Amino acid sequence: MPANRFNGHSDYGIGIGLRVPHYRHILSKKPVVDWFEIISENFMVEGGRPLELLDKILEQYRVVQHGVSMYFGSADKPDRTHLKRLKALVKRTRTPWLSDHLCWGSVDGTYTHDLLPMPYTFAAARRTAEKIRQIRDYVEVPVCVENVSSYAEFHASEMTEWEFLTEVVELADCGILLDVNNIYVSSKNHGFNPYDYVNNVPHHRVGQMHIAGHTKFEKYILDTHDHPVLDPVWKLYAHATRLCGITATLLEWDDRIPSFDEVHNEALKANEFIDGAKKAAV
Amino acid sequence: MKPPPKHPPSRVASTADLRAFQRMMASAIVRPLTADDGLQPLWTDGRPMDKVAAEFIKPNDRLTSFERLQLYSRMYWFRLFDAIRDDCPGLLAALGERAFGRLAQAYLAQYPSRSFTLRDLCSRLERFILEEPRLTAPRTALASEIARFEWAQTVAFDGEARPVIAAARLARTPPSRLRLGLQPYVTLLSLRHPIDTYVIAVKRRDALRSEASNTPGAQAVVHRAFRRAALPRPRRTHVAVHRHNNRLFYKRLDPAAFRILEALGRGCTLSRAIAAAGPGVRPGQVKAWFASWMALGWFCAPGNKRRRAAS
Questions:
Q1: Could you say which residues of chain B have pLDDT below 50?
Q2: Gap between the Cα atoms of B252 and B249, Å rounded
Q3: What is the spatial distance between Cα A82 and Cα A30, in angstroms, rounded to a whole number?
Q4: What are the backbone dihedrals phi and psi of residue B196, each rounded to the nearest 5 degrees, phi first?
């Protein structure tokens, strides 16, 4: 859906992640970019250069916040300090929606700084949905939850990952940030059909998509975000776009980051698939 | 983190089960790796780790449960090591790779991250170095000062800036009643070594290495010339780590100037702070210092917490 209640009824097009090596280029050349995604935690600080830079970006560009440590799936209660800082940043950026991951990563206040997979159970889904609702009510913007890439599955799971994602977003009445690269990576690591995943999530809840590169190792695939998007991921993205409609899309490139133009041009390849989806819809 | 259960829950049917499950997995992930970067072969109770991992993680046709868990543990440790290295280049240079690696692992085992942001990861490193001097001997004093200095840089980079106190308020309040706060992003350091010049030398060396890595043939020359920044010799140094126009700076302070700022930070009135400077300080000197500090925007209204200079 190009604009829906899960992305603040916005129509944002194709964006890229705002990353330090590109700051100078962006501020001096002012390239035309639909929007930037920022990592919320990088700007949840009290002062200094990060906020100065962000304010300069906000003068010229649309920004959407993406978090990496809210840990919707952790059994712990939401961290009050984290929430206050997140809300302050939401007011600063005027992000139409914000996203974080369907995962856990902290317990008893100790943080792993990782996106750890959930046991896919009904009780875990209820707890996760309850936290998403609490957080959304506090920050007062729509929330989209992102499926993570994973390298482990658990005996305790009672359903597939896409069933769990569906259960959570329906209970929380929130949106989905559909990361098609993560789906592909996990499908190879766990031996499922990635098209089953994309076919079976509630498409009307998809408020944003992620695309990225990954790295193949002998026995597993890692979600490294240090390569261009690979063909199978583009194909999956095209399929998801046909099902969900043309959706705000973001390329993640977080390691071995090339020039701004290279990253942006890679992201703009999504237009080919969006055009294909448009033609198919006619 | 509270101790994990003896066995992971076979079902996750409640929030309590979810918490127990997460304690189990997190405890396994944050345990220090073996010398060859593997999961430890035995669990905390002596059982084989492969059996413990198999209790809650499914194997697949390529990886055992143990190997899948090990992936997450490695990612945890490598990510946190990278973050500490990025924040502490001076400490790394002073201790060398091996000793730094041992220190980082022991530190993270004792003080795992309690913050949602990796920015805070080194906030307790100085304390840990002093608690476990064997890890940095015979350079414990130097290492603790570098850790304190590098943490001050983090604070100066993105710490809170409060509204600067107006010069008019200073002029109209008698010194015997005037109290000034120091900006939270300013850290006063009384050091036994000139850590500021050492950290600058390390940064220059690292920058040259980085340059050389893009210049074929130059790398070996630069590595020979800048293998190690010379360790600083003891010399009492007073310095403020701060920012100006959102750029990081180190400002050397006269010992008397340091005492004035320290006293203000403790909540003393202006007249008491100036008295703390000691005899022999000329009024003109004090006036010039204050003019400089005001121009840098260091003074704000005193906060609830009295600031303590780190010495």
A1: 216-219, 221-222, 224-226, 306-311
A2: 10
A3: 32
A4: -60, -50
DSSP-derived secondary structure letter, B11: -
Question: How many structural domains is chain B composed of?
Answer: 4
ipTM score here? 0.95
Percent of all residues in chain B with a pLDDT value above 70, rounded to a whole number? 92
Q: What is the DSSP letter of B116?
A: S
CATH 3.90.78.10 for domain A5-281: no
Rounded percentage of chain A residues whose pLDDT exceeds 70: 99
Is the CB of residue B288 less than 8 Å from the CB of residue B232?
no
Q: Which structural domain range is residue B67 located in?
A: 1-85
CB contact under 8 A, B161 and A47: yes
DSSP state of B192: S
Nearest chain B Cα to A39, which residue? B117
The structure tokens listed for B101 are 């690696």
Asked if B101 and B215 sit in the same domain, the reply is no
Same domain, B144 and B179: no
Q: Is B163 within 8 Å of chain A by CB?
A: no
H/E stretch holding B238 reads: strand B237-244
**Closest in B14, B26, B243 to A107, CB measured:** B26
Tokens at A162, concatenated: 């896409």
Class of residue A176 by CB neighbours under 10 A (exposed 0-12, middle 13-18, buried 19+): buried
Contacts of A171 (CB under 8 A, 6+ apart): A125, A126, A129, A130
Beta bridge partners of A209: A178, A249
